[in-house]
Design goal:
two-stranded antiparallel sheet, 206 residues, 9 strands, 6 helices, alpha+beta, 5-stranded antiparallel sheet
């Protein structure tokens, strides 16, 4: 039996392939340079045991990836706020650990000055209680605090925006990221404020 289920993606065509021998994720790229970037970084990260899906097969314009399920970090985040969960630190620590492994791996490679770029919560999956990064085609040169500031800004602006629960989450998030990655809280907060302005301007244009 073989079934193809289309998944949400803004930039490419992504499907879940359901087959007797097991499921996989099939991603077809519009831009081959994006594919080249993502493939290279996925293989690098996986080789250093940073949690990302394994590359199973590659064609001229597509990558077949390990299927890690459907639960995104955003699913967990929204569910946690809806239940007013206060046991959020363990997941923040896991997210901080993931970013530490990500930057440490890139730092010792040809991508030493690169950051993730697109850090929205849909680009992280939770599988067996662990966090995995899944989208690297927008990786680019930049400063680590840019990624972390964007992550904090996104945390505040998912619906409902700027709730007290979200503010508490972001306070803990910035504290842990700053500690784990040896970056000042002020540097992260400054980038967060810049991104909040960009988000507001984008939403005003809609």
């Amino acid at each position: 039996m073989r079934k193809k289920v289309k998944l949400t993606s803004k930039r490419n065509k992504v499907y879940r392939l359901i087959e007797d021998e097991g499921n996989s994720i099939f991603k077809t790229y519009i831009d081959k340079e994006d594919m080249k970037m993502e493939l290279s970084i996925l293989r690098l990260l996986h080789s250093k045991n940073c949690r990302v899906p394994e590359v199973l097969r590659v064609t001229s314009n597509s990558i077949y990836l390990e299927d890690l399920g459907d639960e995104t970090l955003l699913d967990w985040y929204e569910r946690s706020e809806n239940t007013n969960a206060d046991n959020i630190l363990p997941m923040i620590l896991k997210l901080s650990d993931w970013f530490e492994a990500f930057y440490d791996t890139l730092c010792s490679s040809k991508y030493s000055n690169y950051i993730m770029g697109d850090v929205n919560f849909r680009n992280f999956l939770i599988n067996n209680g662990e966090i995995y990064g899944i989208d690297f085609e927008q990786c680019r040169e930049g400063k680590i605090e840019e990624d972390l500031g964007k992550l904090a800004a996104y945390s505040l602006t998912y619906d409902p925006m700027m709730s007290e629960w979200k503010k508490n989450f972001v306070k803990l998030l910035i504290e842990q990221l700053a500690s784990k990655l040896d970056i000042s809280k002020d540097a992260i907060s400054s980038e967060m404020d810049k991104e909040l302005i960009k988000i507001r301007l984008r939403r005003e244009k809609k």
